[in-house]
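Aim 2, interim progress. The first record below pairs a target sequence with its structure tokens.
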Amino acid sequence: MTEDQKADLLKASLFATRAKDIRVSFEFFPPNSDKMEETLWDSIRLLEPLQPEMVSVTYGAGGSTRERTFSTVSRILKETSLTPAAHLTCVAATKGEVDDILRQYWDAGVRHIVALRGDMPTVGEPYRPHPGGYENAAELVAGAKKIADFDISVAAYPEYHPESGSVQADIDNLKRKIDAGANRAITQYFFDVEHYFRFMDRVLAAGITVPIVPGILPVTNFETAKKFSKASGIEVPQWLYDLFDGLEERPDCRQHVAAMVAMEQCMRLYKGGTKHFHIYTLNRAELTLALCHVLGIRPNRDQSAGESK
């Protein structure tokens, strides 16, 4: 092989070009046991030095984690240097109740909300607005903006939401949320990056110009990921089945494969122009740390993410 051929081969590598100006945000969920609480806070402390743009805390179906979400967000705000964002939904609450929660967050110093329609408490139960409540996420965004000048993120679906009926209906719904005052959208996770790129073509064609941040899920448990993906209308490509085949009883090897998949996904998105990633941590730090390391985001480094000193 000639030197020129070697140089061309190096340029073809996804990791040959060092990523720069990368930004990340993380998602956690509120713990429901002492052991899970310990795991969550160990992860938060490990990830804090990476200084993500924000960290969001989820809100259970039917508002089932309302108090735990508030407690977790408040503790992050008081005990860390991180910027917390509280998920909030329309389900099982009146407008007055939701507005009271928004005021509590604002009074506590929380300025970032992830506004979602939400899911019903029973899995598979069709969504029904609460009598006297916000009907959908667009109404929730508009209501939150009336309470205070929150920085608001909303959900987006590269493969469209199972209840939308069509790709265009989903784009139209996203536009309503943006027009109501949302500052950005964070996508549901996906595995095939082409879904995101095609989605962005439709987003731009619809005149939506706010940032659309891709959600990245490092797969810690493939069986669980398959079940959730099926319920959420997310394609699991055959190549992913092949990669995890035979690793059911080999968790360490599965972790390595999961890291590789997430790293390649982010680098392909980066080469396509994406510079902000929202990582679904599942309250564990290891894969997120590895992924951020590859992206050039490391503790005690210039947080321009990759600039050489």
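The second target in this work package is listed in the same format:
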Amino acid sequence: MFETSSTARKRHRALRRIAWVLLGTALAVASFAGIALAGVSASMADSFAPASPGSDSKGWPAARPVPGSRITVAVAVSNQGSVATDVLAPYQVFAQSRNMFVYTVAAERRVSPLSGGAHLLPDHTLAEVAHGTLPEPDVVVVPAVTDPTSAAEESLRRWIVERHRNGARILGVCAGSELLAASGLLDGRDATSFWSNITSLERSYPQVDWKRGQRYVEDGRVTTTAGVTSGTLGALRLVEELAGTTEATRIGTALSYPGWTPNGPTAIPAHHLAPGDLPYALNAAFPWLRPTTAIGLVDGVEEIDAAAAFEGYGGVSFATRTLVIGAGDTVTTRHGLVLVTRPARGGAHGVDRFVVPGVKNASGLDTALSGWARRNDLTAELPGGGKRPGEFGFDPVLRDLAEHSDRRTALTTAKFSEYPTAHLDLTGASWPWRPTLLAAAAAAASVTVGLSPTLIRHMVRQRRRTAEHP
């Protein structure tokens, strides 16, 4: 009887120890996860920052009239937030065609966030097209949006389906395919998407035949592309089909996307998460103490050059906090897209770098921007000045990112943009040490939290012994 009772007490003590260990482990894991989640939330809030208060009360420039004589392309934009390159890259491709006219469209004509801290003013509303005020588009571009399945995007989903019923071709870029899948438009079709999304899409939308390792997939009048920069090639394919191979070749040659040729192969590496992708998570989850990059925009900037800066410094890399600066409230890109900027007035307030994409030398720098930089003791850096003949707009930004942040972040940014890197010569630090050290500090703090129940228990027991044996 004594041995049985003793054994039971030992077992009970062992179970209590295990319970305390499990409690401590759970607290440590929850603490670390909470810190990381707070960091990701802060990163996303910076990347898709809302418009400044009162910005929609301003008198915005009128949209250009839509001619009825050209192939019409509508680039759909979410008022809640869209991925910058998914919008801007196809926009530039189609706008460079002499046979096409492009406009942006959203549920409301109000300032709408783009990734990387940028903002766009849509040209028209969904209702203008639906009510016949504008001609029906021949092509609708659907970018990745912040919450594709939400009730807030229901009107956009219905609008896209209606445009397809009326004969439009649909180009779903990157995770824009999830919005299309949620609308039912991909049911029974072959489709692709951003590589890290496909597994979850297969679970959520089994009625779609999802394809990996394809730059784009065509099924009838619906084309879907792989991640981010793949929208460039999907748009070139539609230009080829609608305006001819000669026109697509002219545009594609000028853009210089690595490896692109008319009617070229669509197979690309089927990416998967790997240890080398850790900088993506580190930069997103531990944004504290990161530098701030002001992105200066000038009128006439090419859309892809601007998009590369938005994604490279903030939207995909999360390496820096970004502010988008212009001479006034708006900047009009080379092909007529209206981007909303912070006017170059006042102080820089913690800005560490000032980069101006798409400008090759100081003569192309806006006087308002150069004056703002001078007043704030900043140097206007021109990554576009390092753009070599035959390079795509992402190349100089990725080189600059590697030099000023680290090579691993630049390579991860390219991978999460599904952009080739074999041709890039990158210099700079090998690893993002700032977020790594922050992650280590968070882990140490979380371990301390995890040990706290045991420490408290030990202190209580010690006090009891002291009280019993003064």
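The chain has a mean pLDDT of 94. This observation will shape the mutagenesis plan for the next reporting period.
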